[in-house]
Description:
5 helices, Collagenase (Catalytic Domain), binds zinc ion
Amino acid sequence: xxxxxxxxxxxxxxxxxxxxxxxxxxxxxxxxxxxxxxxxxxxxxxxxxxxxxxxxxxxxxxxxxxxxxxxxxxxxxxxxxxxxxxxxxxxxxxxxxxxxxxxxxxxxxxxxxxxxxxxxxxxxxxxxxxxxxxxxxxxxxxxxxxxxxxxxxxxxxxxxxxxxxxxxxxx
Length: 171
Ligand SMILES: [Zn+2]
Ligand SMILES: [Zn+2]
């Protein structure tokens, strides 16, 4: 099992490398850099000045198939939204191939804090691709973050129950 981390738009390479590093030591499967692409122009909504997340996920899916990755995590600095939410930290295909995280709303003056938040939301979205749903435990990484304070409060790992479910999904 290989998970590729795809840079989408003008990301900072250091941040991407740090996420790859943390994900590699956290998960039992390989996590590698999958390259960099531009934000798909079709995803930009000029009225909202935001990017439509499902359109970016579609591009991620295309890249995953093209590059031969079982799963792809896209990382973008762009402000993303869906038809149901005015902004999101991330989105993933449930029990699927692709996940996407944005750090537009995870900003802080301290780059260490940004990296921590981004790693938590990355693990969260990857969890969805393994069929994990939101968890009611506010300390579990699968807890749904409504705001960055939720992200800061939760842990960067799965609670016992979510971990058990995840292990059942990873071969
Ligand atoms: Zn979620
Ligand atoms: Zn949990």
